Every structure is written in C-alpha cells, then in structure tokens.
Amino acid sequence: SSGSAQAPAGGASGSRGLEEFNMDDYDEGGEDGGMQFFSVLNADGELAREPDPYMTAGNPDSDSDSDSAFEIGAEDKVFVAVSCEEDACNLELYIFDEDQASMYVHHDVMLGAYPLCVEWLNNAAGIGEGSFAAIGLIDHTIQIWDLDVLEVMEPVQMLGPKKKAKAKKKRGAPSSGGAKAHEGPVLCLHGSMFNRSVLASGSADETVKVWDVSSNSCVHTYNHHSSKVQCVRWHPSEQAVLLSAAFDRRLALLDVRQPGQAAMAPLPAEAECSIWSRHRPFECLSSVDNGGLACYDVRKVANKATEKEMVVWSMQAHDVACTSVQDCPVADCLVTCGLDGIAKVWSSPGTTPKLIMEKNLNAGPLFACQSYVEAPGLFCFGGKCPVMWDLTSEQLLVDVFKFEDTPSA
C-alpha cells in the first residue's frame, strides 16, 4: 500500500540519517527489495495482472471479438518505451511474445513534448489503482499517464506546470512546499518502493526534487549538484536514502531528511547511469561518459573516506559512453550497454568484472537496459527501437550463471 506521503521517504520507523547509517554493520543477507525500473525503457511484470475493464475480458459493454485483440494475458510480458519520429513523440506499451520471440505495440499515447525519461508507477495515492507511467519532459514538466486506458487524451496528473523561469537559486539552499516546477528539462525519475506517492526527479536545472504525487506538490528541492542531474535512485531498503549523479562528475549520497549533509564521491567523467547493487545493498554502481564503470562502497562515501577507499573496483566497460548498467536478478551477473550499440554481459562476484559475452544488437546507440524481474535472463534495451535479449538462449551464459526459469505467478 502507498501509505502517507506527508513526510516523503523519511518518516517511517527504521530509517537512519547518514551519520547513523552504520553501513559497516549492514546486514548483507537482508532483502534486496527489488530494483524498480528506470530510464528510457521500463519493464513491469505486474502490469498484466491489474484488473481493468479496458484491457481484460468481462466488460459487458464490450465486443468480445474486438476486445480479445486487446487483452493482456497473465503470462504476457509488458514493457513501456518512449519514441520520437520527426515531430511525433509517443509513449508506447509493448507486449513481448516469448514463444514467438517477437513484440508489438499494444497501444500508444501521443505526447506534446519531447520525453527524456519514464518511470512506471502503480497504485499511487491520489491517482488511483492501476498502472501509470511518469514521464520527464523537455518542457520542464512531469506527466503521469494511465496505462490501463486506451485512447487516453490527457495525463491524469502533471507535476510542476511550466512557469516563467525565476532567478537561479543559490546551490546548497534547500526549499520545500508548493508545486515548484523544474526550471530545466527533466532528465531522470525514480519512484519510492516504500511509498508509491513519492517520486524523485533530477533535472538540467542542477536540482533534485522529491514530489508528493497525491497532492501534486514538490515537497523538497535539493541543490547539492552544480551541473545537470543525470540519475536519481532510492535505496532498495533504506527508504530515506537517495543516490544521485550528475554532469559535475560527482556521485551523491543523500538522506532526504537532512538536505545539507549530502556525502559526495568523485567520478572520473560525467555521469551516465547510477544504480544500487541488487545483491550488495552497501554498494552502488556508476557508469560515465568515457565508458568507465566503477563500484562504490557507500559506507566509505558516508564516512567521507578517501577516493581510493571509496572505490571497490573500476574498469573500462566500453570505448564510448556506458549509458546503462543493470545487475541481473541472478547473482554475479552484470549487464552494460553503450553508445557503441554493444550489450555486454559480465561476471561480477564482488571484484573487478570479467567480460563473458558481448553482442551488437543492431539497434544503433543504446541508451538503456533493464532486466525483467520474473524472467531473470530477459533484458530489454532501448536504442533506435526496443530490443529483447534472452540471456538464457546463450549456452555460454547458461553455463556460467546457471540461469533457472522463474515461473509466472
């Protein structure tokens, strides 16, 4: 359930500030919480199970023959993407047919501005039950669309309506309250897995914002970066802790209740993608625009250790920008992609990863990759078109990672 959003991501019991984070005693065997979906492509195994009269059988006012083509089955694999062709920008909901190894657009939504990121939301208080997509746009706004409704004309919610730009705020001075719009394009989004009404955003205006979707308001603005914010990620189990990375070549660890106390780690180049490790929650991974990839120990970052002490390992993952990194639900399996159009699979047992396989997906430059939670070997990539790569179809990868099929619920 969503719960109250009066104190976003920070009011529940069990959360700690960075000074009390005590990451040295972190329970390595704790729940991983499940990484939510991010960036240009998002996958969602639960979407198919949302009861909806527009998409499922049983609507007495519908024609069964025509509606059957729109039904989403319990075993269908669903993902959303955004695309732009000439002057048309669309949000597209895809169905992937695993048996036929093919995909098709179930339905799409025309967008009025260029989309830069999308985040799947469900059952957000103030919006309703179902499946929704939050989209960060170049016009500085965040639109939330109902994915369960066909031929929808308007978003159900818009965060930060575009207003006349104001004087730039001094960095380091937080603000709260009110529906404050970003003053630049919205580059990244991530929804809290603890409270579905809480959404974090990062922007070209150099700020990070936390939104209460239920009240259509920005409750906090953070100014700890000095350039475009490329990544925001909530911690999978510490609900007040937010990770961000920016073009200022810094990775930030922030307790959202203590905005003036962000802990920083230097990056070797401009940030491309940053995520929390699914299997080692005291570590995060960050890729940069020179193709580098590094793992950071957030215990060391929080304690303001030296750069050398913060970095668990680092490597050159791609010859050009490494745009996305994702750790697989299967332990020690890491996947990256880049502007070279190559997807790479690495063995990462806690030390510097070893390359196992690489593949040209023939989709041009790749901007995002995401695993599918109910099929650990299935990855979706975003380039000039969406591409699915089933790692379990590669015998070498099966031999190395011992993939096991996860039955659909």
UniProtKB/TrEMBL annotation:
Record-level GO BP terms: rRNA processing
Metal-binding in keyword set: no
Composition bias type Acidic residues, residue spans: 21-31
Keywords assigned: Phosphoprotein, Repeat, WD repeat
Composition bias, Low complexity: 1-10
Pfam families attached to this UniProt entry: WD40 (PF00400)
GO cellular component terms, A-Z: nucleus
Region (Disordered): 1-32, 161-181
Segments of skewed composition (Basic residues): 161-172
Protein name, entry field: Anaphase-promoting complex subunit 4 WD40 domain-containing protein
Domain of life, per lineage: Eukaryota
WD repeat extents: 179-221
